[in-house]
Amino acid sequence: xxxxxxxxxxxxxxxxxxxxxxxxxxxxxxxxxxxxxxxxxxxxxxxxxxxxxxxxxxxxxxxxxxxxxxxxxxxxxxxxxxxxxxxxxxxxxxxxxxxxxxxxxxxxxxxxxxxxxxxxxxxxxxxxxxxxxxxxxxxxxxxxxxxxxxxxxxxxxxxxxxxxxxxxxxxxxxxxxxxxxxxxxxxxxxxxxxxxxxxxxxxxxxxxxxxxxxxxxxxxxxxxxxxxxxxxxxxxxxxxxxxxxxxxxxxxxxxxxxxxxxxxxxxxxxxxxxxxxxxxxxxxxxxxxxxxxxxxxxxxxxxxxxxxxxxxxxxxxxxxxxxxxxxxxxxxxxxxxxxxxxxxxxxxxxxxxxxxxxxxxxxxxxxxxxxxxxxxxxxxxxxxxxxxxxxxxxxxxxxxxxxxxxxxxxxxxxxxxxxxxxxxxxxxxxxxxxxxxxxxxxxxxxxxxxxxxxxxxxxxxxxxxxxxxxxxxxxxxxxxxxxxxxxxxxxxxxxxxxxxxxxxxxxxxxxxxxxxxxxxxxxxxxxxxxxxxxxxxxxxxxxxxxxxxxxxxxxxxxxxxxxxxxxxxxxxxxxxxxxxxxxxxxxxxxxxxxxxxxxxxxxxxxxxxxxxxxxxxxxxxxxxxxxxxxxxxxxxxxxxxxxxxxxxxxxxxxxx
Length: 656
Prior knowledge:
Elements: E1 2-5, E2 10-13, H1 16-31, H2 33-43, E3 44-50, H3 53-87, E4 92-93, E5 107-109, E6 114-117, E7 122-125, E8 135-136, H4 137-150, E9 157-161, E10 165-169, E11 171-172, H5 186-192, E12 197-204, H6 221-234, E13 241-247, E14 268-269, H7 272-283, H8 293-306, E15 315-322, H9 330-342, E16 349-355, H10 360-371, E17 388-391, H11 397-407, E18 417-419, E19 423-424, E20 431-441, E21 448-458, H12 459-468, E22 476-481, E23 485-488, E24 505-506, H13 507-510, H14 514-525, E25 530-541, H15 545-548, E26 550-563, E27 569-576, E28 582-588, E29 596-598, E30 610-612, E31 615-617, E32 622-624, H16 634-639, H17 644-654
Helix pairs in contact: 3-4, 3-12, 6-7, 8-9
């Protein structure tokens, strides 16, 4: 080995002993390892205690529940203010559009991970928003500003209108004025129709659908139908199931590259993949042949019959889109519908839409289909009576489809709040959940959906403490929803690293042991609390995992699970029983602060500070930085900006 003395221009050969001496000198003189160890030994006392998985799980679950409860309280307050504004006629206030927000009014705020206008909100207006619309921007901004002052950990608060505009606080500068439509965002959809739904969309692709739509250039009724179907698909949530039934003389199959066979037989679970695939197939449809309603309705009821039965209440609805020109008699159509409806005790609602208008005869048939008017049949008590709606052109498409939301509106929905599954944020916060609450106008007897209020919370904010629990190898925490899908797990991408909507996997793919399924899986899905111990499979990467793969090991583990109150999630803490399950706590002894400073020198008002390569520095002391794991709540530490008050608190801790 060579030892190069740059100052003297000398090169010498060192033995292994000489290399060790050089490294020791560097460790002592340059890094100060021995001095730091001596300081640590004299100032810090470490104590250990055994880990209790049940206690850890309960603590983590309570922390997440409390944070979520705070957001739910905030969104209910926003919703109440919005409803009061509509009822009181305060519907003419607007703000600067976000795309026109002055760059001089925004400042970077780490809570939002971007520059924001903390003093004001802003509006976003969709390209399909109604030109004459009610706006409550000032009301929303005033309440949101007050709530952020009281709860500085809060993220974006907003209101999305059924008329296509939204108000966001704090204001953000965006480049596009009209591409954002709140009505198609996951938080809006989840709140507008919170009950899980089974939806069959029947779309007319007969020859008459090639007729052009008035005031729409060369676009046809089928073009209008495609936009309508794709809009409906976009508004479905991950708790829903869906099927699309194209028809003319006969029912047409959904086919093409990537289209699963189940699309033509039963209901498909809503996932980003299934929705994209269905939308792609809908875009490929073309008009031909006659219009036979009866076969389409028979196929629609068959999709429900073939679908697996799920637990819990589910809304079931057929959305029937046509130009209202059937090629058969009303008697044949209603007879076929009655046979299908009877299989389900007439409990499936039917909403009918006439695209581009309908003839008087066609309208009468569609109204009878929606009302379930069958010859010689008396509907059972409580059987749903559907609705009929015309969609005359592309301009009133969304407002016409709002019939779909209002149909499910009930007194229980008034101000109801939901929490979404994680999704990728359009405002730049990464993986988030939204606490959302519906806003209705009108009396309880005639509720009309006017919008949805939302309050964001990042997955890191809500569940970050769960992600940070990992004291030893093969020891971790994970979280699933009530459907058994993994939301957090060490084998999944961390929420902060997501760059698109997450794709959720069944937890049994990540925890593949039969003992897990029998002892943990169903208990967690049933929202029970419990513990179990068994030998579990763990996976480790071998070298570069992309090329060299993984290996599995078997580890004796204990599982401790608990539902997170007020959410659809359950948490499980996994301890490695083959490791030393102890947690260390550090207690400062003496005057540690006399020889150290907390690293935020920029927050100090005085002291001998200098600049070292462009950074603040001190020559007479070392600086200390706490890692997130040092805190009882790592996510709170990461998401609350440090202030002079924080600095004083840390200094007191360092000084016992």
